[in-house]
Amino acid sequence: MAMLPTLIISVWLGGLLSFGIIGGGIYLTYEWYRRAWAYNPQLDRYDFAPNLGLNLPTALLAAGILLLVWAVAGGVIVRWLAGLMSRSHTAGDQPQYTREGVVHRLPRPDGSELQVECYGPEDGQPIILTHGWGANSTEWYYLKRQLTDRFRLIVWDLPGLGLSTPPANNDYSLTNLADDLDAVLGLAGERPALLLGHSIGGMIILTFCQRFPAALGTRVAGLVLVHTTYTNPVRTTKLASLTTALERPVIVPLLHLTIWLSPLVWLMNWLSYLNGTAHLSTKLGGFAGTETWDQVEFITGFQPHAPPAVLARGMFGMLGYDATETLPTIDVPTLVVPGDRDSTCVPQASERIHQDLPASLLVPLAPAKHMGLIEHNERFAELVRAFAVGCFQTTRPRQPMERTV
User: Fold this and answer.
1) Which domain holds residue 58?
2) N or C: the chain end with fewer CB closer than 10 Å?
3) In this structure, are 289 and 374 located in the same domain?
4) What is the pLDDT of residue 47?
């Protein structure tokens, strides 16, 4: 699931639970082993004599083994059981981490190098896709299959994620990421592009609009803002009053701790993935009940591969984000797509964006949470296709211009 600052709490809780599962399994197994030794007075020594049966020592052994199996294979078991109970676990096209496009490598002034891939006809109208934080450009599996008959899709890995290298100065501010988006936009050539962003991708787009207002209507034909927000996401999540109160005393220290103890957090993320707790968290927080379990696995699989220090620094960047004053200045057509049950970026944030934008269309996905674009991928692709066609038909011809910073 796209990682926003409030989710750092669940990362640590899930990681500590994972350590607890392993620790509990080791302790119970050791306790059985310790009790299995009995003193033999005839030989004046201790002999290993396990008494397997319906007794407490055997229960300790069984519980210990179960916890250890859960620690390393719980994810497989959870996926199998959940798949059996899911009404739609075998339905439709299931996502994969595919990379089959034309690759461009963009070196950046901060020392990073961006992985950019192009799909679809070279003369197709360009759509630039910016993924959610913690994922990478393979998130766009469905749109790459559903829109490349007509459009030129340009996807990119945000710095430090996927195949993009991290910036040498560790600058993950929304301003710096918006400058990266501007560089990616250059690959569209002279054709105006549609900018589409999920979660932090939407925040990057709104920051881009703040930094490059002259691009709107010339280099940019329109925007698609998906499951995103206009300000610090701590303030537009479920229980925002609580998360806002926890920002300084809890969230910020945990982000620092994640950077300092990055290898440990990476281990915790892998354990959460292996024991299945990460899958349950993704299902409950990202999906609304009509998803397939391959989709849950697809989104969960991003978490253990994303460097924790990169995730934490990006979350710090989001804490300083605010595009409230930028919204009324955006005069290009904008499609705003919330999830009607999204607790990560509540739908009221999208409603505020829609209210403040001069030319916007609000179309919720339902039932949907933060991964509604995956759960309802066909509906989402239809919305994007229809909106893009309208945008490109009404965009005025692009005039030569110099970029401003």
Assistant:
1) 1-87+236-300
2) C
3) no
4) 79
Extract the tokens encoding 69.
């199996």
Same-domain check for residues 329 and 209: yes
Per the CB < 8 A criterion, the answer to whether 179 and 405 are in contact is yes
The CA distance from 166 to 158, in Å, is 9
The number of C-alpha atoms within 13 Å of 231 and in the hemisphere containing its C-beta is 14
* 396 phi/psi in degrees, rounded to 5: -75, 155
137 and 226 in a common domain: yes
Radius of gyration (Cα) for the chain, nearest Å?
24
Residue ending a domain, among 300, 333, 356, is 300
222-278 tens-digit pLDDT: 999 999 999 999 999 999 999 999 999 999 999 999 999 999 999 999 999 999 999
109 within domain boundaries: yes
| pLDDT at position 404 | 34
pTM, two decimal places:
0.92
Looking at the structure, tell me whether residues 175 and 279 fall in a common domain: no
Read off the pLDDT of residues 179-210 as tens digits, 9 standing for 90 and up: 999 999 999 998 999 999 999 999 999 999 99
pLDDT one-digit tens code per residue, 141-190: 999 999 999 999 999 999 999 999 999 999 999 999 999 999 999 999 98
pLDDT tens per residue, range 286-301: 999 999 989 999 999 9
Q: Two tokens at 64?
A: 């210990």
Q: Would residue 348 count as lying in a domain?
A: yes
Q: What is the pLDDT of residue 92?
A: 67
| 3-class DSSP string for the chain | CCCCCCHHHHHHHHHHHHHHHHHHHHHHHHHHHHHCEEEECCCCEEEECCCCCCCHHHHHHHHHHHHHHHHHHHHHHHHHHHHHHCCCCCCCCCCCCCCCCEEEEEECCCCCEEEEEEECCCCCEEEEEECCCCCCHHHHHHHHHHCCCCEEEEEECCCCCCCCCCCCCCCCCHHHHHHHHHHHHHHHCCCCEEEEEECHHHHHHHHHHHHCHHHECCCEEEEEEECCCCECHHHHCCCHHHHHHHHHHHHHHHHHHHHHCHHHHHHHHHHHHHHCHHHHHHHHHHCCCCCCHHHHHHHHCCHHHCCHHHHHHHHHHHHCCECCCCHHHCCCCEEEECECCCCCCCHHHHHHHHHHCCCEEECCECCCCCCHHHHCHHHHHHHHHHHHHHHHHHCCCCCCCCCCC
